[in-house]
Amino acid sequence: MAAGVPSDALGRRLLCGSEYATVRYVGSVPPTAGIWLGVEWDDPQRGKHDGTYEGIQYFKCRHPKGGSFIRPNKANFGVDFLTAVKDRYALNDERDVQHGTENTLVFGKKTVEFVGIDAVAEQQRQVQLNQLVDISVRECAVSHAGQKEEISRTCANMRHINLSKNLISSWETVTAIASQVQNLETLNISENKMKFPSTSTSVSSVFPNLRILALNRTEITWPEVLLCAPGWPALEELYLTSNNITVLERPDNILQTLKLLDLSDNQLLDGNQLHLIAHLPRLEQLILRNTGISSIHFPDAGFGCKTKMFPSLNHLAINDNKISQWSSINELDKLPSLRSLQCHNNPLMDTEKNPETLRQLIIAKISQLEVLNKSEILPAERKGSELDYRKIFGNDWLAAGGNWNPEKNKPSEEFLAAHPRYPSLCLKYGAPEEGELKGRQPLTLKNQLLTLTIKCPENPEQKPVEKKLPESMTIQRVKGLLYRLLKIPGSELKLSYESSKLEGKEVELDNDLKPLQFYSIENGDCVLVRW
């Protein structure tokens, strides 16, 4: 091999200036003299060809203009891990270029030499390295582990390492570094295009304490993840965004401790791929942003039942996908532990012009949801959403065979498939009465006037007052109106209402920023005022 070219150069990662590339060819390129490196650039705009020169193909590229030839002296093959750490944290031994001057002191005309000062300085550096717990050598051109056991001797206390965007070419380099860090808990090796094992390897106790691993943009596939996973017996969080993952396989006796999995920006074949990871017993968070899925289905559970899939999942992110049918939202109610959902930027979101209406529908369809698109669902919002849902689809329920008489109440399978929570909402609030459904105005109608009776149940001397109020009026403005009537500051007032349709049920008006229509207040209802 030519001078300056490593013996294992083929397949190695390198830097040329500020550009990253992978070596695909080492050798001569006639008619020119000398050794050339054929490289495939990470940025194909940097290249000139596909590895073919003068009609001869020396190497192959994924992009027709992704390749170039460069001279070895232009290539930076990187440094070992410890060199990068010392450079990053200014712990390198940078002596004066004039040999010996840093070890002497002049008194008048007499020069005194301090014997052993080099040893003292080295000892201080070793102490400083041993004190490092959280290390970041991102973009420091790390390409190899260095001398055997040198890391374990000098950096014994490391727990968190950021090795992202370096020149690591293979998983073996990662294990060579990690095997020397006994208490390693967090490892980020994202943005390193590397080779992973293609067959099962012996990886016992290389990562015994690793809890968090980031492998974003490393071109890893799911089978390769499964081959490496036995080496991560305690792993809790795994980040795999922007890779080559299209199909999944069921993890058997591996990844059983996993609590968070991020598969964002991988184009999965379809939503059924999720069934293959659905039995990870401790998985609490699943992030599937921009994975191309168009539907979600849990076939093991029927209407109103809970699936055995994803038993611990409490947070799901499916934003930026292709979900267009409400049936997928219905399916999410089958998840037994789901509490938080992110689902914006799906075609489904375009089915309702009013975002408030869309939010209410999702809340009503998923019974245990507590946070939607990072916004908390308060009890009053859930109640209002469910009451509205019950009314909006009441006429459909009747047309499909629903009935106020329990013996005659037999809604069709088609209706139950579209509205699986409707029976439970009827049990919770009672079936919608005929008077509620007649002339039902759409939710988007603004400023409809409501005729309400205002009572002060704890002050019988105060006579009931009838008022016409727009349904878009906020609770805060209602309190302002009551202040003018009762001379009681709004901050001291507690409001609730009784529905003329649901006798004996009192609903608190506990959110000052919400309009009357949010609570499904209708003509003839009674607002109760206490202070």
Automatic annotation (TrEMBL):
* Compartments, record wording: Cytoplasm, Cytoskeleton
Q: Where is the CAP-Gly domain?
A: 27-71
Oligomer and partners: Supercomplex made of cofactors A to E. Cofactors A and D function by capturing and stabilizing tubulin in a quasi-native conformation. Cofactor E binds to the cofactor D-tubulin complex; interaction with cofactor C then causes the release of tubulin polypeptides that are committed to the native state. Cofactors B and E can form a heterodimer which binds to alpha-tubulin and enhances their ability to dissociate tubulin heterodimers. Interacts with TBCD.
Q: Which UniProt keywords apply?
A: Acetylation, Chaperone, Cytoplasm, Cytoskeleton, Leucine-rich repeat, Phosphoprotein, Repeat
Q: Which domain of life, per UniProt?
A: Eukaryota
The UniProt entry, under PROSITE patterns, shows: CAP_GLY_1, CAP_GLY_2, UBIQUITIN_2
Question: Family, per the entry?
Answer: Belongs to the TBCE family.
Any keyword Oxidoreductase? no
Name the source organism: Smutsornis africanus
Cited function: Tubulin-folding protein; involved in the second step of the tubulin folding pathway and in the regulation of tubulin heterodimer dissociation. Required for correct organization of microtubule cytoskeleton and mitotic splindle, and maintenance of the neuronal microtubule network.
Q: Which InterPro entries match?
A: CAP-Gly_dom_sf, CAP-Gly_domain, LRR_dom_sf, Ubiquitin-like_dom, Ubiquitin-like_domsf, Ubl_TBCE
**Which GO terms of type biological process are on file?**
cytoskeleton organization
Cellular component terms per the entry's GO annotation: cytoskeleton
**One Pfam family of this chain:** CAP_GLY
The record places domain Ubiquitin-like at 450-529
Can you say what this protein is called?
A: Tubulin-specific chaperone E
